[in-house]
Amino acid sequence: xxxxxxxxxxxxxxxxxxxxxxxxxxxxxxxxxxxxxxxxxxxxxxxxxxxxxxxxxxxxxxxxxxxxxxxxxxxxxxxxxxxxxxxxxxxxxxxxxxxxxxxxxxxxxxxxxxxxxxxxxxxxxxxxxxxxxxxxxxxxxxxxxxxxxxxxxxxxxxxxxxxxxxxxxxxxxxxxxxxxxxxxxxxxxxxxxxxxxxxxxxxxxxxxxxxxxxxxxxxxxxxxxxxxxxxxxxxxxxxxxxxxxxxxxxxxxxxxxxxxxxxxxxxxxxxxxxxxxxxxxxxxxxxxxxxxxxxxxxxxxxxxxxxxxxxxxxxxxxxxxxxxxxxxxxxxxxxxxxxxxxxxxxxxxxxxxxxxxxxxxxxxxxxxxxxxxxxxxxxxxxxxxxxxxxxxxxxxxxxxxxxxxxxxxx
Length: 410
Hints:
single chain; alpha/beta; 7-stranded mixed beta sheet; 5-stranded parallel beta sheet; 8 helices; 19 strands; 20% strand; globular
């Protein structure tokens, strides 16, 4: 038997809840299909000491923005989940948990859209795909070639240092998760090896303000998708920083100074032998240049707008990473490495959306969430419209737009 709804929302994360909230205000009938057993499963799966890297004031869920007494702080995983649960309770949506969607296609008989799950079938005038881009861990193919007794986990599986077997740890990737986990591990006493990738860094504070304040002022998060030089830029990692312990900078040169072994990109693996591209210094130079350019951009903004800001700090920049030995191959057993943590991001797959509306990267072709297929929408993706679209800071803006379009459809 097929159930009929005005709108079906796929995913009960921040995007699915946000569009559901706006549709409820419009009095539109909808159901949310979520394959997990609870809302916001991605946030729940973060490691034990996880905190947001954006200040609390950027938590701008529709009509339920941050209302605590620490707007410049960084909420932890559990507080974030509680806030999102309260947001859902505020409008009590119909959520069908354990509903993995297997296809979205046109219903030739009724002319509307049909959504199939592993056990049910639904029909709707509107379908909002709010499954996000963090759908499943992305691992390199050669991860399958490693010795079976090497413990391999993705950052989505990491909990804390004590949850890992004894021994050194190789962290592959220096995005936000990779850097934060690497720091936690070496501060706990673990020997850490770290593959440095292409993610940039930012200082936690600059000229008297949190860096996010300045990034907001220079419209960093308002950059639109159509301004990117390549469609692949939308998947670039966010600059790394941490909100832990009140927030601080993360610096790969400090890591090296503290004893972390920095490596280039991982190239291949077989058994206990791991090979690396000798690009460490080039990667560090790129990261360091980004910081220089960003500070200059902020300085120019301050001058142009005649802002009374603190003077730029005069300090000697660390360069310990450049002194690191260039290592092209490691024997995991010799180095005592028992665990590899893949901080290699996530992949997405929309092949179950049975319409020819995807680009060469498999990313939906849409205009701020509105596809060319009547009634089919997307929400919560990287650079859906702006850089902030996939964040707690910007998902509400896009949700309001999509809800307005749905509301205008009869």
